[in-house]
Amino acid sequence: MSPQLSGPELSGPPPTVGSAGSVPVICLPHAGAGASFFWPWQRRCPELDLIPVQLPGREERIDEKPPTDLRAAVDTVVADLVGGVLGRCTQVALFGHSLGAVLAYEVARRIEARAGGRVTRLFVSGSPAPDAMRERHATGLSDDDFLARVEEFAGFRHEAFDIPELREMLLPTIRADVELHESYVPLPGPRLRAPITCLRGHDDALVAAADTAGWREASERGCETVELPGGHMYLADDPSALLRIMGERLAEPTGAVAR
Question: Hey, which family's this protein in (predicted)?
Fold first, then answer.
């Protein structure tokens, strides 16, 4: 979780564009986070063409109502992408962490339904498989209990929630994101045709290795699972290994299946 809030418009400084012919990676943020979470990645790994998505209710879109329904969130994201990256690229990949993983999965399915084989690979991180039941919820709890449960889920507490003004500003969006995630069920439609790379922090206490097994059934071309050092928010501590894997997989032939 992050105090940064941002929809599906492409947000922030102009994306760093990778080498000619690189596949853009549409990046969906985790609960409470905005597009700015990915800006350091753009500077750190300019060879990747990372396209952060800005969801309503955060950062420069803080005055917009955040979605609590996944179908509405997907509709908004895809509508913006059609006028942006999908209008200029024949191939795209997607990345998402936690809530962003299921959003990226459903956006990828929608892109395939609209535009055939444009999705080359889906990267999902820190997320159970789409049809996995989430046993513990935070939706409906009091503010203090809600933040304590979210802190337990994420594995850390951001200092912004100890500042009353910031807490009041950020709570509606993080509540909406958590409700969206906890009420998620896979949308109807065929399985993804693109291969999936499923990433997980080795010490993730929220998403066990067994929870990710079902991602294999989410794609017609299989799913590889990669464990990286760290806990649930391993990518906030050091994204280097994640970015390296993304670069390696995107350099493979587009017809490659998951390992």
Answer: Belongs to the thioesterase family.
